[in-house]
Design a protein that fits this description.
Strand content: 15-25%
Distance between the termini: 22 Å
Radius of gyration: 14 Å
Shape: globular
């Protein structure tokens, strides 16, 4: 599954929001995260439910940001770069892996992971296989704790 995500995004200019956060629609390769649990957050600036859940995901991120076994990746289904980048800042999404290809639900990752509603929060295991779909950030944190203990 990781290999299939390697070319999911088209190139466009990057915007840096701080020294460590980059939002981009550049190609990315989930192979870089092999060996780690990946928290994959599908969201959009126009989705009120996503925006509310983002605030909770930020708290989970703060608890795991120093854990070398966990990486957070957000995939936005936005169609407008300014709205997307503003929402990243407004919601405090400080992790560095923020991506969007501006195709909404026709986005390759959305199709691959069968995303039909937002928000969608998934955990991929060290081999890139989807092992959990969280209903909310509380469920995400509980499952992440359980996976890290196993």
């Amino acid at each position: 599954m990781i290999a299939a995500m390697a070319s999911a995004f088209v190139s466009s200019p990057q915007t840096t929001h701080s020294d460590s956060v980059q939002s981009s629609s550049d190609s990315f390769n989930l192979q870089a995260f092999k060996g780690k649990f990946v928290v994959l957050n599908f969201w959009a600036s126009w989705s009120k439910a996503s925006r509310l859940e983002n605030k909770s995901i930020v708290h989970v991120y703060q608890n795991y940001q120093l854990n070398p076994k966990v990486v957070f990746v957000s995939v936005s289904l936005d169609t407008d770069a300014v709205s997307w980048q503003s929402a990243i800042t407004d919601d405090g999404l400080t992790w560095s892996n923020q991506y969007c290809d501006f195709k909404k639900y026709a986005s390759a990752p959305a199709l691959q992971f069968k995303v039909t509603t937002l928000p969608q929060i998934m955990i991929l295991n060290a081999n890139g296989e989807q092992v959990y779909t969280a209903q909310n950030a509380h469920d995400l944190e509980a499952q992440l704790q359980a996976l890290l203990k196993s």
